[in-house]
Each structure stands twice: as structure tokens, then as C-alpha cells.
UniProtKB/TrEMBL annotation:
InterPro entries with a match to the protein in the record: MetI-like (IPR000515), MetI-like_sf (IPR035906)
Membrane-spanning segments: 25-51, 88-109, 121-141, 172-196, 279-301
Localization (cell): Cell membrane
Membrane topology value: Multi-pass membrane protein
GO biological process: transmembrane transport
This protein's name: ABC transporter permease subunit
Origin species: Agrobacterium vitis (Rhizobium vitis)
Gene Ontology cellular component list: plasma membrane
ABC transmembrane type-1 domain span: 84-297
Family recorded in the similarity comment: Belongs to the binding-protein-dependent transport system permease family.
Length: 306
């Protein structure tokens, strides 16, 4: 056979994937459906919402590209500024109170006290209860006539006057924060408790042998042991609280006089008025704060690992 015939046969030979290439490609084939699902359900709606925020789209109208017009309009409205201020206040205050309650109760339950199993289950009830039921219950408690809080205050003589907790600006935001804290602190409690139980007991014994008092043991053993859990819990709680809708809508619907207005409720009002572009702009305006939180948490966790 001539060299020309051999070259023709070599070219005509069907193309095949080697066994090594198939073995390398197999993991990517397994992951591909999940990646496509994430792109379809997460990435595409996320990027499309960002695009809509730069248009004047309305229901039934695709709208046109308007650039930063929606954001300039929102920045000039008092409602948007109130939503930004209230969202920051709710997140900061509620996270601090949740941290104090969750850490204090976790330290208490982590000790060998009678009935701590029942105590643990009891503290998880607010988080296990549906948010709709929980906040409607708080709305009943806040009622000026017949509400449980006013009844307790007047009957015990602590405060003899009726207070419209949700109907006046000075008390509406603290009332929303209190209900949000009650609903969310069990997540902090169970996360911190799990972290406390993972700290080796030998570290506390070694600290006692070295003469460390209770505060020094907490500072040098407990805090380093639960630091990463605190960072992750703070990040998740901040994101959930900032994006929370039920606690404000079911209690005050953003009132009175925008005293409890937050970004999710403002975006919902934008959808009700069919201004989809402005509603998307409200949601996109929250992204920088969320990105900062994620970057801070990532930096702190990486620092601990190093």
C-alpha cells in the first residue's frame, strides 16, 4: 500500500474521544444540569431585574432605556429616603438585640441546668411559627383597644394611658423592631448554641488551670470559637431582615407617614402602581449594601482561616 493510500485511510478514520477525555468530561456532565438550573432560575432573573431598573417599563409596556433616571427620581423622593433610613435602623438595632438575646440564652442553655431540653424547644417556637401567623398575633397584641400589651400596662398600673403602638410615628418603628426580634432571635440562639457545643471542653479546663476568670475564658476561648458562626449568622440575618416584607406589611404597611417604610414594601407599592422600572430600581438600590456585607463576611472568614 502506497503512502498516499495510508494517508487517505488515516484521514477517513472516524473521530473518537479517548477514554481519558471521557473520564475528565464526566464530572462536568454531571454538574451541567445544576449549572443550567441555577442560571435559569437565579442568574437570568437577577440580571433581567437589573436591566429593567434602567428602563421605564410598566405593565403592558416594555418601556425604553432611561439610564439612571429611575434612581435619580427615587433619590429625590422623601419616601425613598425614609425607606433607606428605616431599613438601616431596623437591621442594625434588631441584629444587636438578636445577638444579645441569642448569645445570652445560648450561654445559659449550654450549661447543665434542669429542663434545658424543654427550654431549647420552647425558644425555637417563634422561629418555627409561620411569619404570617406570628406578625398577625403581634398586630393583635399592639391594638390600642383590647390589645394584650395595653391591657398589661393599664391593669398593672405601669402606664395608665392607652398607646396606639402602630398608629403613631414615635412607637411604630420600635414596635416593628420588637416583633422582628421576637421572630428572628431563635436563629441566632440555635446557631450560637451549636458553635458553643463544638468548642472542646479541654480548652476551658486549661484556661481554669492558668487562672483565667469567667470573662477571660469567654474572651479567649468562647469568642474565638464562635467567631465564624457569628459572622455568618450576622450576614444571613442582615440580608433576611433587609429583604423582609411580612413584618412591616402585616403590622403597619409602611406607615404612619412612612415611619416604617422599608425597601421591600416600597418596591411592592411600585408594583401596585404598575411602574415596574421604578420597583426594580428600588430592589437594585439595595445591592451595594448586600455586596458590602458579603465582602466583609468573606474577608473576616478568610482572615480567621489564615
Amino acid at each position: 500500500m502506497s503512502s498516499t493510500d495510508r494517508s487517505i485511510r488515516r484521514v477517513a478514520r472516524p473521530w473518537r474521544i479517548s477514554a481519558h477525555s471521557r473520564a475528565n468530561a464526566f464530572p462536568y456532565m454531571l454538574v451541567a444540569p445544576v449549572v443550567l438550573l441555577i442560571v435559569g432560575l437565579v442568574a437570568y432573573p437577577f440580571l433581567y431585574a437589573i436591566y429593567v431598573a434602567f428602563t421605564n417599563r410598566m405593565v403592558g409596556n416594555d418601556g425604553e432605556w432611561v439610564g439612571l433616571a429611575n434612581f435619580r427620581h427615587l433619590a429625590q423622593t422623601a419616601t425613598f429616603l425614609s425607606a433607606a433610613r428605616n431599613t438601616i435602623v431596623i437591621v442594625l438595632v434588631s441584629d444587636v438585640v438578636k445577638l444579645a438575646l441569642g448569645l445570652g440564652l445560648a450561654l445559659l442553655v449550654n450549661r447543665n441546668i434542669p429542663g434545658r431540653g424543654f427550654f431549647r424547644a420552647f425558644l425555637m417556637l417563634p422561629w418555627a411559627m409561620p411569619a404570617f401567623v406570628a406578625f398577625l398575633t403581634w398586630r393583635v397584641l399592639y391594638q390600642p383597644i383590647g390589645g394584650g400589651i395595653n391591657l398589661i400596662l393599664t391593669e398593672t398600673g405601669i402606664y395608665p394611658h392607652i398607646v396606639d403602638w402602630l398608629g403613631q410615628t414615635p412607637t411604630a418603628l420600635p414596635a416593628v423592631i420588637m416583633a422582628s426580634v421576637w421572630r428572628g432571635f431563635p436563629f441566632w440562639f440555635v446557631s450560637i448554641l451549636a458553635a458553643l457545643q463544638s468548642i472542646p471542653k479541654e480548652l476551658y479546663e486549661a484556661a481554669r488551670v492558668d487562672g483565667a476568670n469567667a470573662w477571660q475564658r469567654f474572651r479567649d476561648v468562647t469568642l474565638p470559637g464562635i467567631r465564624q458562626v457569628l459572622v455568618i449568622t450576622t450576614l444571613l440575618s442582615s440580608i433576611w431582615t433587609a429583604n423582609g416584607f411580612e413584618h412591616v406589611w402585616l403590622l403597619t404597611q409602611g406607615g404612619p407617614s412612612d415611619g416604617t417604610m422599608v425597601f421591600p414594601v416600597l418596591a411592592y407599592f411600585g408594583m401596585q402602581t404598575q411602574r415596574i422600572g421604578e420597583a426594580a430600581a428600588v430592589s437594585v438600590a439595595m445591592l451595594p449594601a448586600m455586596i458590602v456585607l458579603v465582602l466583609m463576611a468573606t474577608f473576616l472568614m478568610q482572615k480567621d482561616d489564615d
